[in-house]
Amino acid sequence: MRELTSAPPQAKHAMSTDRRKHVLVVGAGLGGISAAISLRQAGYRVTVLEKNAHLGGKLNELRAQGFTFDLGPSILTMPHIFERLFTGAGRRMADYISIRPLRPHWRNFFEDGVALNLYPEPERQRAELEKIGEDPHRFARFLDYANRLFDLINFGYFEQGLDTFGEFTRCYGLRRFPQFDLLRTMHDGVARHLREPHVRDMMDFFIKYVGSSAYRAPAFMNCLPAVQFRHDLWYVDGGLYGLARGLACLMAELEISVHLETEVAQLRTEGRRVTGAVTRDGTFHPADIVVSNMEVIPAYRRLLGESDHFFHSLRRFAPACSGLVIDLGLDRTYPQLAHHNFFHSKDQRRHFDHVFRKGLLPDDPTVYVVAASRSDPSVAPPGCDGLKILPHIPPLDEKNPVAPEQYLALKDRVLAKLERMGLQDLRRHIVFEHFWTPHDIERMYYSNRGAIYGVVVDRWKNLGFKAPKHSAKYDNLFFVGGSVNPGGGMPMVVLSGQNAARAITQWDRS
Ligand SMILES: Cc1cc2nc3c(=O)[nH]c(=O)nc-3n(C[C@H](O)[C@H](O)[C@H](O)COP(=O)(O)OP(=O)(O)OC[C@H]3O[C@@H](n4cnc5c(N)ncnc54)[C@H](O)[C@@H]3O)c2cc1C
């Protein structure tokens, strides 16, 4: 049964006389943008259809009362992956987007009063570790382990866009599989190297970059600290949405046709081919190749109306966590905050267990707090802080619905926790407030059950792998973004777009 929101029987046709092959990209998130730019550079004619009024998908911003908030991502890592989109067109990213590294990377607050910074410089980090009695040599050995994992994963999984067991075996050879540390969880990998509980919690929480649990993710996810320690942590001046603005300029210069507020309601098929997309207003957009930046499960369900039997094979690609996105404009600053802060749960194992195993709202979550005004005065009025507050919470579950009052109660618990841990009288200083639940995230981006990082990384469900980029069902249908390999987070979805473009050109020539 097809689930079509609007697809009139007689669709109008969008005509073109250009003879180059035409690629239709459904969705202008970073995955779709990256695929569109890479395919244009490979010589295709590219049209992007985006349901929302803005480019960038979850990379989104909110401006109100003199505050600018990153509604989506606020940490940029691996900018060299973005740079390729510009160099591929003979340009320099720096001419479009201004970025700078931040110090410290993160500030970590614990319920017992300990505050710990994370720095990429070994000497500065050593001083932090000595404050709480972790052996800096242990930490250095942990980073060596993280670097080895990163090199291994980067070589094949990231850069060659591996999707299948066969591709892995050909690339790495069976003999190298033990190097992935497959028998341990991420937390086991941390605990094997580090002793001090605060430091363990801090390194476990690197799993936040993919919205999963350190107790369920495989140990090779300990490559994440290497991403940050080796490639640094970056800010985009004026707010992260500057990335989308820069990419929009590049797309315009490359003459990529972008249609905003144009929702795709159906993908038309003939046998094993997708022939094009029907938009909500009934227009049919024919295509030689379709790239879906809509996630795999929602696209098969809403645009292709696949059978329940088909979804059974996709069950392992369960959604990553969702989030409660709270943006607060304050009439004061909290100087103890760095740009990026984590207020850790008293029992982080319990936090992960609630969110990722039991599917419950956490009673004491680890909370991420961004105070961008700490390094960029342009994002808040003078003397004020704008805070983005993000606890990770389970994705929507129709069998176990969460009432609006439960989300509100969690918001109160989070603000009370921040007050308890030093942001005194926070609630009395709010002059602007914005609040999103997983329902809003699902409605905005059509992500699977309101997930914010695509597919969950779970050793038992999928060993950490997401869906393949090439559809198993339709020959000329490809996917990009957080639901396909190498997964969620901005640099990874941009990489997925570049890898998909390479896979498409190879498939097209074969
Ligand atoms: C609150 C939050 C905080 C985050 N923090 C970070 C961070 O600090 N660092 C980091 O690297 N990552 C972070 N992430 C994750 C990161 O934002 C995502 O992994 C990435 O932006 C997802 O890109 P995407 O292309 O996969 O999907 P999306 O950005 O969701 O893009 C999909 C696009 O497709 C459009 N679409 C869907 N269906 C249709 C349709 N039928 N027709 C037309 N258009 C359609 C959607 O509107 C959307 O624009 C965060 C995400 C959130 C929400």
Q: Could you please describe the fold and organization of this structure?
A:
The protein has 510 residues and is an alpha/beta fold. It folds into three domains: 12-60 and 239-314 and 466-509, FAD/NAD(P)-binding domain, CATH 3.50.50.60; 103-233, no CATH class; 321-452. The chain has helices at residues 30-41, 79-87, 122-132, 136-158, 165-172, 186-193, 197-204, 224-231, 242-253, 296-303, 308-312, 348-358, 404-420, 438-445, 490-509, and strands at 12-13, 22-26, 45-49, 61-64, 67-70, 76-77, 99-101, 106-109, 115-118, 233-236, 257-259, 264-270, 273-279, 283-286, 289-292, 322-323, 325-330, 340-343, 367-370, 386-393, 430-436, 477-479. Strands 8, 9, 16, 17, 18, 19, 20 and 21 form an eight-stranded mixed sheet that branches. Helix 1 packs parallel to helix 9 (242-253) and helix 1 (30-41) packs parallel to helix 15 (490-509). The longest helix is centred in the first third of the chain and has 23 residues, at 136-158. The radius of gyration is 22 Å and the shape is globular. The structure holds flavin-adenine dinucleotide. Flavin-adenine dinucleotide binds at residues 26-32, 49-52, 57-59, 72-75, 263-264, 293-294, 323, 325, 390, 445-447, 452-454, 481-482, 488-490, 493.
